[in-house]
Amino acid sequence: MDALHTAGIRFAEALQSGPPWLEKFWISVTSLADPKCVFTICFPLAYFLDRKVGVSVLWIGLVSEWLNVVLKWFLFGERPFWWVHESGFASKELVTLRQFPVSCETGPGDPSGHCMITGAALWPLVTALTALASRHSRSLAVKLSPFGAYALLLLAVGLSRVFVLAHFPHQVVGGILAGAALGWGLQGHTPATRSLGFFVAAALALLLSSLALHSLVIAAGIDIDW
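The structure corresponding to this sequence follows.
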């Protein structure tokens, strides 16, 4: 893992050595792709365009948020900003990295929540836009443009998370793959006909199960809040 982490640090250095104007771009991307935007921006917009798609975005966003927390507890991923000091890497080799206000995120970092939750929640919206494009155009480029934009967005989000030292590259790749797989897998199981009470109960169940799991792991002697 040290070799993987070292390669990630060098990659982050290369990203940070880019043109100065890119700094504002990466920080803007990592801010706009915060998982809470799935619920405050993406869900309302998707719901306005199509109720079923909107509910699917909400449902998948909810489940992926919960699953990301659970995965982080079990995978125990390091954060670059902390690892470079705690591992002693910075004292052995010359490291040229900059800190940003969003660099000092605490808690495990694998997989990337920004990539996983955004990738999962946007999947139904992207497939809906692809279907819409297919109905109005025979051009393959037009039909594939929603997925092209989706891929570019996740790539930008992933690079932004490495740039601000919130994640290592392998955590970003894992988050993207997990998010896309989760979006694809859950899209066909969206409880679109359920009442609001169902979603409230589901959210409460996920919350309580997280608290219970947290307590069990702590009781087993594993400090997941390291």
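The chain has a mean pLDDT of 89.
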